[in-house]
Fold each of these.
Amino acid sequence: MNPAIPLEFDFQPRTRIVFGGGTVERLGELVRHNGGTRVLLVTDPGIVAAGHSARAEKSLTAAGLEFTHFDRVVENPTTEVVEDCVDTARREKIDFLVGLGGGSSMDAAKGCNFLLTNGGRMEDYWGVGKATKPMLPLIAIPTTAGTGSECQSFALITHPKTHVKMACGDVKAAARVAILDPELTLTQPAAVAAATGMDALSHAVETAVTTRRSPVSSMLSREAFRLCSRSLRRVLDEPGNVAARADVLLGAALAGLAIENSMLGAAHATANPLTARFGIVHGHAIGIMLPAVVRFNARSPEVAAIYHQLALQSGLLDDCGSNGSAGGEQIARFLSAYRKKAGLPGSLSGFNVTQGDLEELATDASKQWTGSFNPRPLAVSDFISLYRTVLDNGNGANE
Ligand SMILES: [Fe+2]
């Protein structure tokens, strides 16, 4: 590589984004536009009960489309859930998929697409670019604001025995269209909105500094952080505020698009083993780890400068009197303050994690592919130190 060119990137958005109140009603038109005739709507019972799937089905009916729905998606969908979904898809001879719900429904729809079109088992697609045959078109409609799955080509599917989340990625698995309708996010339970909001913030903060970042992904990370940081607390205070919900929904999607181009870092590498071994909800595990990771990364002057810009552009810092490296600490404090306001756990106390577990957790974290993009490389001993910082909050080290 020419040393005068600091980086290379290849940016190709694969997902059309349709954003706005009531846009779920455009589903039928968008399925038709993308060539669908027989649709499988992949969702979960909560989304059916909230009336969202009825709105989606009404739009499909109005467009004269045939459809069936699979509503057995669960949180952290396993290969078994995906296989169940594939059985329905085969039986109904569908030619189009719609994932309606949180990240779990969208991931299950993507997982179903892999097996339906390319055969085999979910494990065969663990990694990137393992699908050799074309896949069916997919429309993703998030009803939570957080994972950004609607803008990514990865399906996170959990192994039923090991509980390891397998990231199965292929550009062909990315949704053709993401319908972002803020009205659908009004029904999120408060606890879900709080945890998924933390996840969206983490995607913006982690993608901003990875070794894969580019000018385009950085632009997405900055806007995602600006939107989520200005409106997440408002969502907690005023759950019916559609403008605040719209900010967070769009911010989460842009952060998802940033992940697609920039990957993630050590907060996800350390959070994933906490979910696999101790069943800690993803957004909770992320919330516990992220401030410590930001402080760890901010020891690099280059990363500290990025955090500083992020804090300035989001209004967390004001230009006067800031010393050019205060942003990392400011972001860590903002994240801890959001976590506290949202009632999310601030440490590992209460999760039965002991000092004796840290070595195994750190070894698992060091094997996470996602950690390899963290701007500062981490040895197992660094992962142990990070976990130790959050083992309990008695010393306030993570505040
Ligand atoms: Fe995440």
Note: Residues 394-398 have pLDDT under 50 and may be disordered.
Amino acid sequence: MPFLKLKKPLKGLKELRDFDPGLSDLAALLIGAKPVLYTDFSADGWPYIRGLCEALKLKYLMPEAVYGKAGFKAVPKSGKRMLLIGRGTKALKDAAKSWLRSPTDPAWGLLLGYPECCVRAYIEWRSLAAKTDLVNFTFGRTLKKERFHFGLNNVFNYFSRLTGQPADREAFARIRAANKDLDLSALQVISWHPCSYGCGPSAKLAGEIFSFLSACLPERAAELKERLGKPVLFRDKYEYLVLAGSAKKGEARYSGLSEPRGLLPEALLKKIEAGNLLKAGKDSVAVFRGSRPLYKITSARPFSLLDFTASKG
Ligand SMILES: [Zn+2]
């Protein structure tokens, strides 16, 4: 649903579009969590963006017109162009001057207003990206392994996480096809990747962005919490399942599986669905129905139970 009706008009606007720019990014800009955002856009989307910026007194700049196509590019042949939107002219110009920087230059992430700890962790991950998915990297850096703020759930956020390799592109296309009624790219509260699932600055901002969304777009906010605030049994970038339930100390109690759907084998899903309690161990997942053990699922690559059920950081 591309246009969402606001609960009450926002500076004369009655609705917001949920892409170009993404809502979480726009919310972060409007509450002052970010000074600048960048987005791509198509020509037919321009009247909306211009109207949005005029109503909300936001400034904008097309960096490619000034700095060429080096640096961050719109997807080739998409016909889209890149745009920077900011609250003030100075922040906008500073970001535009950095357009040629690499996304792995810390200055770029900091200009966009991401917490410094998260910018540094993301850059560290980029050198490992071919071997380790960002979510496993982030979980590895997380000290306390349970009750993460749901706003830090980036399992479905593939932005800045795709490697561009053919196998990765193919898996990304398959996971989108498996969730064709859901817009995975809209399932996020923070538009950046946290440095750990215990990151204090990101959890604080997630809470603020979510409060803004709750006040303006309560139905969308409720949907985000519903989708993101669940335990996820996670093996790899496209191999996970979302549990309808709760988790505690490495155990999840659940009534079934939720969307989005990952790309785990159907036989494995059936085993999990047959139970209502699972325990994620180092090299296996034990599935129970009540106290009765049903299956022990072993896997060469370990599963982790990511518990995104907290509302406070
Ligand atoms: Zn952080």
Note: The chain has one domain: 3-34+113-307.
